Amino acid sequence: MAARNRGYFEALNIFALNLVSSPGSGKTALLERTLADLKETLNFYVIEGDQQTVNDANRIAALDVPVMQINTGKGCHLESDMVFEAVKKLGMKPDSILMIENVGNLVCPSMFDLGEQKRVVIISTTEGEDKPIKYPDMFHTSDVCIINKIDLMPYLNFDLQRLKDYALQVNPHLQFFEVSATTGEGMEPWYAWLRKQLEKNQ
Question: Which ranges form a coiled coil (predicted)?
Answer without folding.
Answer: none
